[in-house]
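dumping these here so i dont lose them again. two proteins, back to back, each one seq then structure tokens. dont judge the mess
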Amino acid sequence: MIIVRFTSGLGNQMFQYNLYSLLKEKYPQATVKADTRWFYTQDEHHGFELRRIFENVDGSGFSLEEATIREIFDTTGQIATPVKGALAPTIKHLLGPVNRKLREHGVPQKKGVVFDQLESPIDPDDLFNLDINKDYYIFGFFVEEIYYSNRVDALKKELVFPLLSGENEKLAGKMRRENSVSVHVRRGDYLSATYSDKFISLGMDYYRAAVDVIKEHITDPKFYIFSEDADYTRQAFEWLTDKTIVDINSGNDSYRDMQLMSMCKANIIANSTFSQWASILNENSEHITVYPAKYMADSDTEDRRMPGWIRI
């Protein structure tokens, strides 16, 4: 059995889903399941969103089978939080000492091998050459291009957005008629004490340079600016003409921004998996994506080799 752990916001969940789907495809004789119990006790962003957005959409190939507590224990030697809701944090807290003792005493695992990308880098070749006679528990984000570059067509069939309506539908029609360019500005948590020393909040130098690149490739571009901080973008982008600030989606509808961005003829993305996925799923075959060379405070992003991706 292979278990992939899901955590964090929508963009990261989608990368974890890609790995889950890739492993099911690569190892058809193995059982591949998902561990979503991190969300039982975490309320980061909008919780576990994949089922709510992509499941039961007409024409979608999305599917997700979740691991049981016993399967997680057999693979990791740890007892997962068994329930959702108000009691979940308390139960997780009570299980903490128990799981710590299990780790200290090296409770025998059935056949489990744990890959934790946060503890140490994972060589993709290790995941591409698993011994399916063993059990694996895999944790990380897997944003590297090697995991998805050959699966874009499959992902577009599995991660199908629900139909748009109302203002979103009207805006999408306008984007399709124009040389539309999405501009994603990630602020919010990137400015918080938790993330400010990890992630860069991109400044206007990046966005001005990105707009210049777009104008070299596209005639009469129309810019659509997406951000959780619309007030900031109205002020910060006063210099940009032919723009629309998109501020019609929030809360559980925030994913609609990703959907709208994926309909634009070009994308200027932030150092964010949210807008990165808008580009990966972009419905225009010859779209251009401009992305920042530096994502994290202490490291640059890798070069993207997919056609139309431009690093600045």
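---- next one ----
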Amino acid sequence: MRTALARDSRLLVPVGTCEQHGPHLPLGCDTFIVERLADDLSAAFGILRAPTIAYGVNTATKRPYPGNATVRRKTLHRWMNDLLGSWEQCGVAAFIILTAHGHDPHQEALSTLRTRQARVFTVDVFALDFTGYLEDPSGPVHGGELDTSLMLYLAPQVVRMDLAKDFELSERQVARFRRRAAGSVPAHSPGSVGRPSLASAEKGARLYKMIHDRIATRVLGAVAA
């Protein structure tokens, strides 16, 4: 680790969640995505990556879902501050936090992390502009077209498209859902919102390349060899 940090003092830190995304996707959907990103970016640019943090602050739900496991905003914030402090003492000068979960309390916990001197960059991969990549780019992101496409590309063996169910929201519900702290997954939904029926592995491949390349150029400031 000392040798690697002497060459590049940045550290990739993937932070996932353990929450339902409908019956067709695994509980760790968000974790799969950022873990693969961290692996690929680490290999392409020779940057160290931390072990994956598999739990975060889950989106609110109107009913319980088996397997869901969440932490509070303050818990995630304190946990991450402790970890970053330890890694900073080892020589890390910049942290790139990767997450695929836009829930406000989750984002707040990660975007307000503090270190003694190291820089902290929090990247929500789902905050990118997907216009031109999705048939429904304005739709809510929770088990819909975007993350289902990514999972069909990254880990098709854990996707059950035979169980996928579209669950469209009204304009008012979409507006409320997008205010992540106020919105929640409706009780009568399958645990997901949006249109997973629009998803495909080919679409996921294009989406993943765009996400990877945007992070590489805008955050890491480099082009892979």
